[in-house]
Amino acid sequence: MKRSTTKTIAYLALYVALYIVLKYVGNLIPFLQMPNGGSIELELIAVFICSYHLGWKIGIADAILSWLMTIVLGFPMYFVQPVQILLDYVLPLVVCGVASLLWPIKETSKPVTIVMGVVLAVASFFGIANSYSNTTVAYIAGAVVAAGMFGFTYWYLKNKKKYGIVISMVLKYICQLLSGVYFWFPEGSAAGSTEAWVFSAGYNLWYNLVTLVVCIIIVPTLIDRLSSAANIKFKA
Asked: Which of 20, 150, 180, 208 could form a disulfide with 117 if both were Cys (CB 3.0 to 4.6 A apart)?
């Protein structure tokens, strides 16, 4: 076995182990958990770093192996049918594993940066408004958070340049949104109904947004530190 292959396998095992540790730590913190499934996912930090370090193909392998290990170790999961499993667990991890492949552009134009900032700001506003039943306080809080999200997104995309994380999290949200619409719709409504879309959009938005913010702060910082301190070469 070539030395490079051995190193890749060793790093892959390290990232899977880091995923498990971060997931375990996240499960110990109650406020990171959503009441009906879903959580602020610290463990995705390991998947994103693996993708940028070892490439998107190994990133996919890391995502799938990490998920399989959580099953072996008995972490709580909700299973209804194969499509739901794909939308809730497999595809969200896989799209995070391919982060280094998504948007490999080194620089982005100002209009694109503004559009992405607006999209995340609007998502933040409606996420908070829906979470607190569209009250006046919720609208005010949503506006403040939306403004902060826009400013943060604009700064991040102009300076950190790990766009793949943002794209991956958007795709992850879409997968879990669809799962909520067709498999976890509110009692008294039907799959695919307007009520199911509204509930799933709000429920899955908030924890995915917080996870996004955590990852786009921590992942580029760790990559910069590892690049300089450990002389590790990253894909982007």
From this structure: 150
